[in-house]
Amino acid sequence: MRQLRKEYQECGGQELAAICARIALDTKAEELTVLDVRGQSSFTDYFVIMSGRSTRHVQALAETIEAELNSKRVSSQHAEGLQEGLWVLLDFGDAVVHIFYKEQRAFYDLEGLWHDAPRLDLKEDLGVAEPEEEE
After folding, report:
1. What is the 3 state secondary structure string of the chain?
2. How far is 108 from 87, CA to CA, in rounded Å?
């Protein structure tokens, strides 16, 4: 059995959400939102929600996040939707990643369903800076 790297052994949900957010931004995710659902959800602490420009982009985001976390020996407990690329769910326990194709995100409106959940500021709360736009 592989051991979790020491720096990730005590990785809490917020740190895990920050790692997922950083990877997502590096992979050009759009409309990245992190919701703190502690106390509102019995199955996770954080939702990391993002959009992809196409089904292939959605798949690439999911594959990259999963590969990066697997390289740190953090594996998803459950993954769904990768083949279709419309809504991919990656369950890392304390953080659940939702990657939507744009139209699917508007239809399911997770942010609306979890409107009481605080939105974390990427820079202030997670220490994740959005990449600067190229001109």
Report:
1. CCCCCHHHHCCCHHHHHHHHHHHHHHCCCEEEEEEECCCCCCCCCEEEEEEECCHHHHHHHHHHHHHHHHHCCCCCCEEECCCCCCEEEEECCCEEEEEEEHHHHHHHCHHHHCCCCCEECCCCCCCCCCCCCCC
2. 10
Prediction pTM value = 0.85
Residue 44 near residue 94 (C-beta atoms within 8 A): yes
Specify the pairing of strand 95-101 against strand 46-52. Answer: parallel
CA distance 42 to 63: 26
What does the pLDDT look like over 83-114, one tens digit per residue? 899 999 999 989 999 999 988 999 999 999 99
Which residues on adjacent β-strands are paired with residue 4?
none
Residue 21 CA to residue 106 CA, distance in Å, equals 20
Structure-token match 């083949």, residue found: 83
For 32-87, how does the pLDDT look when each residue is reduced to its tens digit (9 = 90+)? 999 999 989 999 999 999 999 999 999 999 999 999 988 777 767 778 888 899 99
Residue 4 has pLDDT above 50, yes or no: no
